[in-house]
Every structure is written in structure tokens, then in C-alpha cells.
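Thread title: Can someone regenerate the structure for this chain?

I was given the following input by a collaborator and told the matching C-alpha cells would be attached. They weren't. Posting the sequence so someone can regenerate them.
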Amino acid sequence: MWFDEPLTLASGSETRRAILHAAGLNIAVAPPRADIERRAKAEYSGPPEFLPQALAAAKAAAIAAEKTGLVLGADQILLHEGRVFDKPRSRLDAVAALRDLSGSRHQLISGLSLWRDNKEIWSYSERAGLTIRQLTAEDIEAYLDRVGDKAFTSVGAYQVEGPGIQLFDAIDGDHFTILGLPLLPLLAFLRRQAAEAKR
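Best answer:
Regenerated them for you:
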């Protein structure tokens, strides 16, 4: 059974849009204002493991207040030794992040929040473990030279779907979770919704 109802993605991520489109979903994209995420992050006081779901819910709620139908919020954090990493704002930030992650294991935690009629109907979170190999200063500089500004678009300054994969020794977890959208649990829930609507 396929799910054909239109879905609004409350995220500006090209990767998430491409994942949903490739899965055959009928999607529209409506990124929330940048201050929505900043305010939600500033106001959050719970364990870092639940931050992605809180951010996803804040994004979805902002768009669901303006649109009818299904709205999906999504977010992801990188957690390493209790610290949540932000996207690097400069090359110096990217160098520092990769130096801190070098030779160690970290977690990517992706959260989803699905809304209908201005109400959350489903949420989900999943994590993956990634180990970056021991990097020299030369390794880091060569990598950043290669990827350029793309290093500033992702937490940790890497994208595993590109040259960033060469930074790793091991990756444990679902591929879509690593890309920031745990797809299979979402599709399973949407199929259940479609089945219930036909009863």
C-alpha cells in the first residue's frame, strides 16, 4: 500500500527533501523562519538526547499553524561527550569540530514530528554511532580544501554522502537516520494512517 496524501516538509534541507521525493511521497517544502529553531533551542532545558524531537516539533508547529494537512518537522544533533555540536560558521570552527571528533565515536540523533490540524500525531527519534578515524592537521585541511563551503552546512563539518565518508573508521546505524530523516518508521506510520482512513 502506498501513501499518497500531500505532506508539507517543515525544513529547508535539500537532503530531506530528496529522501522524501525519492520515496515517492507527494511533498511540498515550507521551511520555518530561522528564529523558530533558535528560540526553541534556547528555551529547551531537557536532556540533549530529546533535543532533536523538540526542535522538529517546534518547526512543524510553526508551519502547521499556517497550513492544513500533514506537516513534518525534522531535526538532528551531533552529540559527543555530552556536548551538542552546532554547524560550523567558519573554517576555524570546522577545523575545531573535526579536531575534537578525531579518533573518537559520536552520535547523530535524528528526530521527527508529524502534525495534522495543528496537533502532533506522531513523533520519533533514532540515533546512529559514528567513529571518525585519527586525523592529522594535514588531513583536516585537505578535507576542508576539497569540500569548501559544504563543510558549513552540516554539524560536524561532514556529509557522509560525499567526500566526508573518507573521515570515518566505522558507522553503526540506519543510513537515513544519519542523513537526518529516519525514513522507514515514518513510512510505516503513514501507511497505517492510509489504512485507517479507508476503514
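The chain has a mean pLDDT of 94.
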